[in-house]
Specification:
The protein contains 3 helices and no strands. By secondary structure, it is mostly helical. The chain has one domain. Helix 1 runs antiparallel to helix 2, helix 1 runs parallel beside helix 3 and helix 2 runs antiparallel to helix 3. The longest helix has 53 residues. About 5% of the residues have low confidence.
Length: 129
């Protein structure tokens, strides 16, 4: 009888742990997709700012303007690279622990991308010829 109680307790504990991991996986997925959705409109803003800076790239501040354009291009390319390597379809083939690890890494990559994007956008917007 005691063995059955211990076995039931272990199974309930494993089930609760599995549910907590699934919840964490779902939360991470939501955060990753939310951050992606937040960054995508900034891509359009990057393209617009690059076009504005193009006309200034041969002026007296051409070195600075070209640095701003490179920073914007790097942010844009990093977003495109991230989107090409991110595979939401592969999540269905992963166990919950692998999902959590994968989504955690993706979230961290996007947070770094967000910092660089925001920094390059801020610098480009602040530039006044």
């Amino acid at each position: 009888m005691l063995n059955k109680i211990i076995l039931c307790s272990l199974l309930l504990g494993l089930f609760a742990c599995s549910q907590a991991e699934e919840k964490l996986s779902d939360e991470l997925k939501s955060k990753v997709l939310g951050l992606h959705d937040e960054l995508m409109p900034k891509t359009e803003e990057i393209i617009s700012l690059q076009a504005q800076l193009d006309s200034l790239s041969t002026g007296k501040d051409s070195v600075h303007v070209n640095k701003l354009k490179k920073a914007l291009a790097k942010s844009d390319q990093a977003m495109m690279d991230w989107m090409h390597q991110f595979s939401i379809d592969s999540l269905g083939k992963m166990d919950v622990k692998a999902k959590i690890e994968y989504l955690g890494k993706q979230y961290n990559q996007l947070k770094e991308l967000q910092k660089h994007t925001d920094s390059s956008l801020h610098a480009a917007k602040a530039y006044r010829p």
